[in-house]
Each structure stands twice: as structure tokens, then as C-alpha cells.
Amino acid sequence: xxxxxxxxxxxxxxxxxxxxxxxxxxxxxxxxxxxxxxxxxxxxxxxxxxxxxxxxxxxxxxxxxxxxxxxxxxxxxxxxxxxxxxxxxxxxxxxxxxxxxxxxxxxxxxxxxxxxxxxxxxxxxxxxxxxxxxxxxxxxxxxxxxxxxxxxxxxxxxxxxxxxxxxxxxxxxxxxxxxxxxxxxxxxxxxxxxxxxxxxxxxxxxxxxxxxxxxxxxxxxxxxxxxxxxxxxxxxxxxxxxxxxxxxxxxxxxxxxxxxxxxxxxxxxxxxxxxxxxxxxxxxxxxxxxxxxxxxxxxxxxxxxxxxxxxxxxxxxxxxxxxxxxxxxxxxxxxxxxxxxxxxxxxxxxxxxxxxxxxxxxxxxxxxxxx
Length: 371
Known about the structure:
Layout: H1 2-19, E1 36-41, H2 43-54, E2 62-65, E3 69-72, E4 78-82, E5 85-87, E6 107-109, E7 112-117, E8 120-124, E9 126-127, E10 132-133, E11 143-153, E12 156-166, E13 174-185, E14 194-197, E15 205-213, E16 216-224, E17 229-237, E18 245-248, E19 254-255, E20 265-266, E21 273-277, E22 280-286, E23 295-301, E24 309-316, E25 324-332, E26 340-348, H3 353-356, E27 364-370
Antiparallel strand pairs: 1-27, 2-5, 3-4, 4-7, 5-6, 7-8, 9-10, 11-12, 12-13, 13-14, 15-16, 16-17, 17-18, 17-20, 18-19, 21-22, 22-23, 23-24, 25-26, 26-27
């Protein structure tokens, strides 16, 4: 499945060379825009995940993943939410054995958790240590879940997932199917307490990002056409995603009908974030107006619903080039750093690169400073 995910991204990015739209002239910055003051590598988190991934004290835990959402739990722990995940050992030369399905010993799951406490990480999966399973298990072999953003509601962890399904024998005979939210008790994160359908009738993958602001929880989604990708916005009263959803319409009002959800802007990635900073709101995303972009950019607004303007370059990912690409940057406002912590993912178009070098398929972290 890691190969499948990388191949999908490869296809989408290749198609964008054919369909990418001309880039518009950047709009003026919002009056509420914070001043960007610089960015740098977050050494604490980068080292934490590198050290943990290379540690062979256990051979059934995390050695690499993508997705990389997070939420601060009430007891001070940080829950990290991942999609495609490698578990197992790391060889002395920095390689990993192939996955079990290819005759090796590396376990591959479509989703997992890691819990950080006092600078130490612990992997959480379903199943057993001898037979790990995804924390959000598929209903059958033709379906799987990739994670979206995560939130807390009344002490319950609510994690969004997109379900994908295979409908034929061909390599590309699979598709996005629906959005769901899985609810996990904090003390038992290895399997969901319950799973609930989320709005899924308008071709929007919810939730690329989640923001609690005032009396509402805002949910950001993506309508993915390869290039362009369109931002959509919904909201729910209170903290839980199980409430009644409203969707931002083209005239700036709210509708209970998902069919009225409007395209807010293009240029966002499948995962992005909106964060309140001072009096304004900052949207952080990989720049999908460019093919194979190494650019992490920000837009700003005086409202959590936009319009988001004043595009600024925050960081250029040094890993990008050759077989390697980076994607899905977003912020972690509850995580301590020298500024706003932002993660991004690294991947390769060549599946065997993931066996040759375990360091490729791991999240990277930067600190972004605003004045």
C-alpha cells in the first residue's frame, strides 16, 4: 500500500503538469496578517522521531509514516496521528527489510498513533504485538482508511478518516469513498469506541484541518482534482464533529446542505491548516499551484473562512529533488516550539527507496516565527 500511495501522488503530480492553471497575481495581504519573521528546523521533534524510528529496542513499533496530525491530551500527552506506517526493525546500514507482503518482516499499516510524553514516544496500533493492525481497521480487504485531522470533544478523541475502496482488479481500480469520524477514549487508543459517518455527498474530503474558534469548530476540506485542489469550509457548533454541520456557500452564508459548499480558493494541498495568530488567521499549505513544489506557503485572513490572501513563502524543503518529493505541510499550534510548529511529509516515487533508506519516509518539522 505504501507503493500505491506513492504511485497515486506521482500520478496526481504528473497530471498537474497537464492541467495546472496559470498563477494569478498575489492578492494584497490581509489587514490582520501577522508579520512573517523567519523559519528554521525544529531540532527537538526532528531528533525525537529520528531517534525513535531508528531504535531497535522493540521490533514492533514505528519506523516511518506520513499524515502527521496531532492533538494535546488533557493529561499533557501529545497524540500523533499517522496514515501509512512502517513497523519493525532498522538495519545497521539505515535500511529496512521489505514489507511482509513482499517476503520481508516489515509490517505496513494504513494508520497508527504515537503518544509522546516527557520526550518519549510509544507506538499504538490495533491487534497484538505479534499481529499489529490499524487502529482504524478496514471493514474488509477492499477498503482502508487514511487519517485526517483530530480534535477533542468532552474528553473523547475524535479522529477523522477518509475511506478508500477497491472496485476492480486493475492497478488504478480504487477511489475515495466516504468520510468518517472515529471516537477513541483517551485511556484506550488501540481501537475506536464508535465510528460515525461524516458528510460525504459533495466530493469533498473532510477534514484537511480543524480549528476551534469561538462557539464553533471549523472543518476544512479539499476537493481534489489533482490540479487544481479546492478549499471548502464547514463548521459545527461546540466541540464534537457529531453535531449539525453547516457549509460555507458562495455568497458567504451558511447552509445545512453539503451541496451548497463552495470552492473558497485553489492552491491548497490535501492536508493544510488554519491557525489563529493574534487578530488574524493563517492558512499554511504546500503550494499546489506549482508542480512538485518544495514551497511551504502561508495566506492570511481576518476570518477563519477567508478570503485568504497575501501569499508568503515560509520555507523551501531541502529534501525535494530526484525521486524525492515533499507534501502536506500543516501547523501544530499546541506543540511547543520556537514559533508555530509545522510538519511536512517526505516520500519517494521509487518504492525500494523506502527499504534502502528509512530516513526518507518520516515527518520533518520546522518552526515558523510571526511577529
